[in-house]
Amino acid sequence: xxxxxxxLSHQYSDGTIALDNISLSFSKGERIALLGPNGSGKTTLLLxxxxxxxxxxxxxxxxDKPLEYTPKALLELRRRVGFVFQDPNDQLFAPTxxxxxxxxxxxxxxxxxxxxxxxxxxxxxxxxxxxxxxPPHFLSFGQKKRVALAGVLAMKPDAIILxxxxxxxxxxxxxxxxxxxxxxxxxxxxxLILATHDVDMVPLFAxxxxxxxxxxxxxxxxxxxxxSDTELIRSINLRSPRITHLFEVLKKEDKxxxxxxxxxxxxxxxxxxxxxxxxxxxxxKKRTRT
Amino acid sequence: MSHFNLSAEIDRYAYTNALSKNSPVTKLxxxxxxxxxxxxxxxxxxxxxxxxxxxxxILLCAKIPWRFYLRLLWYPTVIVALTCVIIALFFGYLEPLxxxxxxxxxxTIFRDGVATGFTTFFRVAGAxxxxxxxxxxxxxxxxxxxxxxxRVPKIIVEMSLLxxxxxxxxxxVMETMHIAQELRLGYSGLLKKxxxxxxxxxxxxxxxxxxxxxxxxxxxxxxYDGNIRVLEDVPKPNNxxxxxxxxxxxxxxxxxxxxxxxRIV
Lengths: 290, 265
Fold this sequence. Notes:
The complex is a heterodimer of chains A (290) and B (265). Chain A is an alpha/beta fold and 290 residues long. Helix content of chain A is 44%, strand content 20%. Chain A has helices at 42-49, 71-80, 88-91, 97-107, 112-125, 141-153, 171-187, 202-205, 223-228, 230-235, 242-252, 266-289, and strands at residues 3-11, 17-26, 31-35, 57-62, 65-66, 81-84, 159-163, 191-196, 208-213, 216-221. Chain A has a 6-stranded mixed beta sheet with strand order 6-7-8-3-9-10, sandwiched between helices. Chain A has a 4-stranded antiparallel beta sheet with strand order 2-1-4-5, covered by helices on one side. In chain A, a hairpin with a 5-residue loop joins strand 1 and strand 2. Chain A is globular. Chain A starts with a strand and ends with a helix. The model of chain A has no long low-confidence stretch (mean pLDDT 91). Chain B is mainly alpha-helical. Chain B folds into 2 domains: 19-138 and 236-265, no CATH class; 140-234, no CATH class. A two-stranded antiparallel sheet of chain B has the order 1-2. In chain B, strand 1 (96-102) and strand 2 (105-110) form a beta hairpin. The radius of gyration of chain B is 24 Å and the shape is flat. Classes of the chains: A alpha/beta (290), B mainly alpha (265).
């Protein structure tokens, strides 16, 4: 287990209960999505994982050891687990892209040559090498997001936590980030944990889904299972992916013989449509024969 | 808000001009030595030379568009010219040059006053153009690295680094807020203008505090321990160039000495 949360609760100083008795565990190598409406506690939960917030009650375990909050232990934790913030302007503070990406590795006390190499590699991974000397205010929002990701990759983490990685991105930027993340997971074996309310993106990304609402863990499992429970999804102000919704309507209103496990993505929908067409023509053939 | 656009444009040229990759140490040395000589020179000959040299460097070597350079020069030139006219009219006491009739008052203008006015004008022109050379060719990031190397106290360098980055973030925030207020007629009338502006400033202040906290969190997540470490990648200064600038500066100093007694009036 990479992370385990045990009865985690967090109450902010103004009295708001942001997290209420959450227990869950994340395994290595997984692509995990935390789905929930605004204010459901996703970011608060993620900030507990890297020790920025301390639980009011309950415990956080990293690799089966309880989190220590000493500077040394935190530095090691934050080397191994990177965090990409929602607003890249919060994260990019240095005057150039290169200086910003170098910040993490330099804090780990690595020698300059090694840092330079790490910076070059990270910028290459996210496709931003040619912007190395540029100041962040010359970049577009999507480019800033990729630089923020590079800043974390340069520390060579085992896992990356991303808070709303696709919010405010245009469709192209969203799909680029998504493919980049999938590649990192596949090629480098990085564990990815992301918070989002983008329901259309979740089935394309996650193999494990957790649904949060009002600080409580509502449901967990494979995306396909959870999205089949359309009542639950709607009751917490989210919606099904558009594709799933379409098939739900076709099934309910038009009584089409659709699988109870509704398709979530375009490729699943394609299979389902082809299957329907085939069984249709099969039935027609049967009918003409008799 | 054109003055913000102007500073953003200067910043853009600093990164994109034809000399941006040259050693910042050389450029700083060039700009500062010419500034000193300009300001200290007793005769106008040297500042004029400095002005012409730096202008040629800015336009031909750094390839800054002359329209933009003129726009930069325009505002300070107007102010300095006015100041120098006043100096020429009111200063001096040695040789009367001419007398003018000002609203029935006879006003004596002195030769040395006029000379001081001219000299001041050219000194400022030389100083200005050499500083424009620096800001137009040298990115802020390189200047920060030099400050660090020159052992300027860390707190100042780190503050400047963060201020430089977040000025651009807050200009954007401020422009958005300003437009939002303007669209709801927040600037129609003096009273509303004052009220809207005070709200804008107040909100901006709160936003800066908020941003500070969030940036600190994000920096902590990457192992911030109170020290901002940077890669010191400054292009090495070219010794020949440094020697050339030194030679030029000495030559100008000699010219300044020889032309002490040259008078334009």
